[in-house]
Amino acid sequence: MTSHRREAFVLTVAVGLIGITFGVFADSVGLGLAQASALSVLTFTGASQFAAVSVIGSGGNPVAAVGSALLLAARNSLYGPVVAPYLRSRPGRRALAAHFVIDETTAMASAQDDPETARDAFWFTGLWLFVFWNVGTVVGVLVGGLLEDPGAWGLDAAFPAAFMALIVPHVRTRPGQVTAALGTVIAVVAVPLTPAGVPMLLAALAVGPGLWVRSRQARGRTAT
Fold first, then answer.
1. Last residue of a domain, which of 116, 140, 166?
2. Residues of the chain scoring pLDDT < 70
């Protein structure tokens, strides 16, 4: 096995273990095996799945759950231009590849030195990750049914931890800090006033000021 495939395989196994956590979490909020598996097969982006299940577990309605999931999944659209040069193939295969455009596949593909290896890394990571994530989901739901209180294992912290992992790289910049601070204020104010899931959607309004700060920084660099 080549080095990039070996690294990708280790990564997919690790993410598959998080899939078990998702399955347990899904079971704890009342989702059945078919529902949890459908989320993993059709959505296949962990942060969005945790977001949707978290909203459902908090009593939110389906619209808020889907909106929160779409909000987090929107970042995957930015990965398209990164991996597109490696995936020039027939339309059917490109459509399948679009389902695999997520954090891990993009990271593995973009880390390679040549297009052929990048393409192989993308497909190898995507296919194995799909297998392990979905198997992990099934195992998690089955295990979750045997646990009296999944929260006692700290599994309810999985989504906040995953969300923080996504945020940390962005708050190192001034625009990211402005967005995070304003989004936090909006969410804190909205939590007692709006249904579950809606504060997350409203917090997305903070992206506008963050983009404005970034554009001002860019103009300042151009001027100098």
1. 166
2. 148-170, 196-197, 200-201, 222-224
Q: Nearest-CA neighbor of 166 among 5, 85, 47?
A: 47
Give residue 168's pLDDT.
Answer: 63
- How far is the CA of 181 from the CAs of 167, 176, 187, in angstroms? 12, 8, 10
* Predicted local distance difference test score (pLDDT) of residue 138: 95
pLDDT at 170: 61
Determine the pLDDT at residue 16.
87
For residue 23, the model assigns a pLDDT of: 92
* One domain for residues 62 and 149: yes
97 neighbors 124 (Cβ within 8 angstroms): no
Instruction: Give the pTM.
Output: 0.71
| Contact (Cβ atoms closer than 8 angstroms) between residue 46 and residue 164 | no
Say if residue 195 is in the same domain as residue 91. Answer: no
Q: Give residue 203's domain range.
A: 168-224
103 and 182 inside one domain: no
**How many whole angstroms separate alpha carbon 158 and alpha carbon 145?**
18
What Å distances lie between residue 122 and 72, 73, 103, CA to CA? 21, 18, 11
Handedness of CA 82, 87, 90, 93 (dihedral sign): negative
Instruction: For residue 39, give both structure tokens.
Output: 């989320």
